[in-house]
Amino acid sequence: MRNNLIKIALGSLALILGALVYILIRPSSNIYFITALNLNEFNLNLSYVPAWLYSVSTGLHTFSMVLFSSIFVNATRFNDLLLVLSWILINVFFEAIQHPDIKDLLYYELIHTDSLGYFIDNLSKGTYDSLDILSIIISGIISYFVLLILRKKD
CA distances (Å), 59 to each of 11, 97, 99, in order? Predict the structure, then answer.
């Protein structure tokens, strides 16, 4: 029970930090939820931000989803590894469909199905960044070790 509270706390903190990166630091013109919720005014419009910092929020999402999901499964090394790999694949998929070549391929192949084409179009409004893929993988590995540490404390 104590470990679940730690997972919830760490996962929530990661999501909050990731949201702050999106709202305060990332260029907001191409972020759907920032423009939809009219949060542009909170952006700090910093003149120089290291490129890797934009990808931190993507990694924090992966990290938090692994921790949240782990609450609902039996804590074994195999299950932890399966959760990490699943969230890495899910997040890499969502990043990959933002790549212009993949976005075009999916859109043109699925254009005849209105609902699916609309779904893909909305999911792919972001900007592909290979650093996001790296951030997803690194955060997945970190989350696996956090789960191992928490299991040892149990």
Answer: 12, 17, 18
